[in-house]
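Deliverable D5.2: sample structural annotation.
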Amino acid sequence: MLAELRMESILAELEKEQAVSVAQLCQLTGASEATIRRDLNELARRGKLNKVHGGALPIREEFRGEEPNMDAKRQLHTPEKMRIARYAAGLITNDDVVYLDAGSTVMHMVEYIQAPNATFVTNSMECAQRLPGRGLRAYVLGGVIKPGTLAIVGCEAVEGLKRYNFTKTFLGANGIAVGPGFTTPDPEDAMVKSTAAAHARETWVLADSSKFGTITAASVLPLGGAGIITDRLEDRRYLEYTDIQVV
């Protein structure tokens, strides 16, 4: 059996059984243990399955319904967020018109921006306070302020975004998954994010590796709708859909 056909058989068996052993796959395909182990290594490298001792398990995605408040977010994955924010800030040049949303990683970008003549628009109350402190020109959207995250959302925010044309948009996301794409728990927040992306020449989602394989209630964009800046990428499937910068 050709290698690609054999690997298709392995994936089909895994989908049916939800767990497969090397011995089981040898019997299924007629291949040796060494060959099956090589196939499992290759499929794991492609992000098609999770290889475990003696066999393989499917890649499972987790649904999360609740959104932590900003204080809780600040305590999570802080070193990773700082690396991601520093890299993202380095993409901004003096000629840019930039949208910064209210993601906790996006907020850290303000500390690293080295483009004093760029123009910034934000729906984040925290970014709105920090940007002028760095001597940066900033515009704030109108709308409803969400308790907990201090993001400005609602129809007024969406309509305000339609007046702008951004060279770069930077968004946070609560979940990244192959099917639903980029997601967030709040539909109003999702609408603001997707509108900002629709009015941008270039969109980046800033997300630490814990966000991959997670789905939340409201879809923002398909995976092809934005590049990703992250600290680690274990599931190689995502490279098939968009540009990913690992920092």
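Annotation notes: The longest strand covers residues 168-172. The mean pLDDT is 91.
The annotation will be released with the project's public dataset once the embargo ends.
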